Amino acid sequence: MVASGARTAAVVGGGVIGGGWAARVALMGWKVRIHDTDKDAPSRIEAVMARARAAMPGLWDVALPEEGEVSFHDDLTEAVTGAEWIQESVPERLDLKREIYAEIQAACTEGAIIGSSTSGFRPSELAEGAARPGQIIVAHPFDPVYLLPLVEVVTGPGTGDARIERIRTTLRDIGSHPLFLRREIDAHVADRLLEAVWREALWLVSDGVAETAEIDDAIRYGFGLRWAQMGLFESYRIANGEAGMRQALSQSGVALKGPWSKLTDVPEMTEELVETIAGQSDAQSGRRPVEELAQIRDANLVAVLRGLKARDWGAGRLLNATDRRIGGAPQGLDAMSLTAPLPTGARAVPLDWSDHNGHMTEHRYLQAFGDATDRFLALVGCDAEYIACGQSFFTAETHVRHLAEVRAGGQITIDTQLLLAEGRRARIFHRMWESSRLVATAEHMLVHVDLQSRRAAAPPSDLQERLGRVAKAHAHLPAPEGAGAAVGRPIAHKGAEEAK
Ligand SMILES: NC(=O)c1ccc[n+]([C@@H]2O[C@H](COP(=O)([O-])OP(=O)(O)OC[C@H]3O[C@@H](n4cnc5c(N)ncnc54)[C@H](O)[C@@H]3O)[C@@H](O)[C@H]2O)c1
């Protein structure tokens, strides 16, 4: 676990972005204190938290720390006192932000980091006239903050190396990717890029070249997919083949001077253009409420991020690194008690594991149980290194029982009992729990295999010894209910009526 519940953050301004920060930090186990002048802020944030609970924890294949407490404070001083990170997310008005920093700095410790979510202001502008300018930095996130890892960080000369290091590790602790800008600039990096695309899109509508839905299609069916995984420069490098980047630049340099780029002009926002764009957008997306669109966006983002995770690439690589950090070093068999089934899994159900019935779909049970089998085998010594040397276990038979529903975001744990270890065969029984509720079981017959001949072969003596040790200890445990059951045979278990 990375963060104990003892770490405390404060969020000042709990709108779209402040709510997203609160969700990310609370789901990473921090206490979060929120100050917002609007009395409706708590209900808005609860809606964001509910969306985040379904989507965010399932990004990782290990359990996150227990969710931290979220509290609301009418008094700003009360909210920020003692917080180690204070994230200002009030509307984009310089005077308002400066007023808030004065109040925050009168209450917070000198060691606290004050991050601003500002999309446009530079830290030197924000910190002008502040009591301790080096304490105020830009920490610019992206909506939804609880899913998108990027945080652009802009520091100033007074920030100091120690604070920079703390900013880096703290953002890493909450699963974010801090991108430190080399120097301050209006609107940072990402929004500069987005503004350029946005301006060109407005021109295309204004000139009647394309409608809003067509522009969105041009992005999401094409280069947007490329951008999500490799960005701009790496994608262009490939597109140009072995001719390389120098060649690409010599060609695009000429093209960029062509008449088809209007990037520096902005179309006049006439009433007519506003009506055109708003009307096209209503026709494109108006049949769905924004909350529904946000849920669709979250589910799509989870699918993309988990896809990249399986590829260990880009943002997916960050998720894998966070898995390793949160999961910590795996506990060895010698350090574990063998008087109970072995803990072999703890995770949240990812959003993309849900089916049309609104609960975890069949093959994902098998995936979770398969991961638990891998974990069990690694514990007894059949780990990646062992397999690379030419031997492994294959699964010969499986029986999964679905006893109760689990939904996206649900926290599941798995334990494993070894029922038999005899020669080449091992029979294991997994139980999946959501809290104290048994939701599924899986029984597997595993066969030890020589990977060269692809035939069953006896395990080496050290592996046999470890399996034997677990089998001997587990022989004292009661036989699990449902072990050895055939498909369709009724089992006297109260969860059976709830079975899928
Ligand atoms: N919306 C985005 O996509 C996005 C993305 C990145 C960064 N940002 C930046 O984040 C900041 C917040 O933007 P947002 O979109 O969340 O705005 P928002 O309007 O949704 O939220 C602002 C919140 O601040 C509260 N507030 C107003 N005055 C306050 C005060 N004096 N004290 C405490 N709370 C106060 C409001 O009640 C509201 O809940 C802005 O600086 C914006 O540039 C926005």
UniProtKB/TrEMBL annotation:
Keywords: Oxidoreductase. GO terms for biological process: fatty acid metabolic process. InterPro entries: 3-OHacyl-CoA_DH_NAD-bd, 3HC_DH_C, 6-PGluconate_DH-like_C_sf, 6PGD_dom2, HotDog_dom_sf, NAD(P)-bd_dom_sf. SUPFAM superfamilies: 6-phosphogluconate dehydrogenase C-terminal domain-like (SSF48179), NAD(P)-binding Rossmann-fold domains (SSF51735), Thioesterase/thiol ester dehydrase-isomerase (SSF54637). Residues 189-246 form the 3-hydroxyacyl-CoA dehydrogenase C-terminal domain. Residues 481-500 are annotated as: Disordered. GO terms for molecular function: carnitine 3-dehydrogenase activity; NAD+ binding. Its EC number is 1.1.1.108. The lineage of its organism: Bacteria, Pseudomonadati, Pseudomonadota, Alphaproteobacteria, Rhodobacterales. PANTHER family: 3-HYDROXYACYL-COA DEHYDROGENASE FAMILY PROTEIN, 3-HYDROXYBUTYRYL-COA DEHYDROGENASE. It holds the Pfam family 3HCDH_N. Residues 9-181 form the 3-hydroxyacyl-CoA dehydrogenase NAD binding domain. This is Carnitine 3-dehydrogenase. The keyword S-adenosyl-L-methionine does not apply. Transmembrane segments: none annotated. The keyword rRNA processing does not apply. It comes from the Bacteria.
